[in-house]
């Protein structure tokens, strides 16, 4: 109980400190001589980078160690235990250096007026930011579980069409060189198919391929993916076909078109899913 109380108190402190820091930035913006010649669009760009970079530095990397060895150890710890925050930090520092003018950078440093923030920006840019491709927090490496519910139709637009409801529980493994940014995810598990007032059990396998990350700078929103799924039952009936999906943190949506063996020809599924573990 004490741990819960202290954690809640700590989170409240972080929120208040974050609000205080942002109000401090805004209150000093207009008075900073180094910012007076910037356009509103340039000031807004700096503010966006500040809102993405500063909270991670203050809440996860504060204070900055005095030497590069300890700095790298602290950065490696963030990469291991909070990879999405690590990716957001690295990508935004890279973007901040590459996409802002010298006048904007001077304004940022003057307004932030925080040695910890400035020290980490300098160190991370020297060590990690000069890369040819931004890191992706999507498709995190490792084992996960997908719970999914879909509604659809068998033999759509035909006289034999039937309502279809499916529930799937799939064990997944995502392949990636880093902690995230993978391209391939393999899945296997049972599925329940309900139609014609009957419930059938299938074994379902699926491959997902990450195609394109969805971004609203300076953060990642999710990813667009391609799916290829196949299911079979004990009687040898096969259902297989491609689909597309949108994956957000934890939740996702997908559209699947599959062909069937047996009396029916094809089916459509539209559903939502929830991911556990990764």
From TrEMBL:
Keywords linked to the UniProt accession: Signal
Taxonomic superkingdom:
Bacteria
Signal peptide range in chain numbering: 1-32
User: What's the protein called, per UniProt?
Assistant: Outer membrane protein with beta-barrel domain
Protein's organism: Mangrovivirga halotolerans
């Amino acid at each position: 109980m004490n741990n819960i109380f202290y954690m809640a108190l700590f989170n409240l402190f972080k929120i208040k400190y974050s609000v205080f820091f942002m109000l401090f930035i805004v209150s000093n913006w207009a008075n900073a001589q180094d910012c007076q010649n910037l356009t509103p669009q340039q000031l807004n760009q700096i503010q966006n980078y500040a809102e993405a970079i500063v909270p991670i530095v203050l809440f996860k990397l504060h204070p900055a160690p005095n030497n590069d060895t300890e700095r790298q150890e602290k950065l490696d710890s963030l990469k291991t235990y909070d990879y999405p925050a690590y990716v957001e930090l690295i990508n935004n520092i890279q973007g901040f250096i590459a996409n802002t003018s010298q006048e904007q950078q001077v304004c940022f440093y003057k307004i932030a007026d925080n040695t910890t923030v400035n020290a980490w920006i300098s160190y991370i840019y020297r060590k990690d930011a000069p890369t040819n491709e931004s890191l992706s927090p999507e498709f995190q490496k490792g084992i996960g579980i997908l719970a999914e519910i879909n509604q659809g139709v068998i033999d759509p637009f035909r006289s034999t069409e039937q309502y279809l409801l499916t529930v799937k529980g799939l064990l997944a493994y995502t392949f990636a060189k880093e902690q995230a940014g993978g391209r391939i995810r393999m899945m296997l598990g049972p599925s329940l198919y309900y139609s014609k007032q009957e419930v059938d059990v299938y074994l379902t396998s699926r491959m997902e391929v990450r195609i394109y990350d969805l971004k609203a700078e300076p953060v990642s929103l999710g990813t667009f993916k391609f799916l290829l799924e196949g299911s079979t039952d004990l009687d040898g009936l096969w259902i297989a076909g491609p689909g597309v999906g949108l994956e957000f943190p934890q939740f996702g949506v997908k559209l699947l078109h599959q062909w069937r063996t047996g009396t029916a020809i094809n089916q459509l599924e539209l559903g939502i899913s929830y991911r556990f573990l990764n």
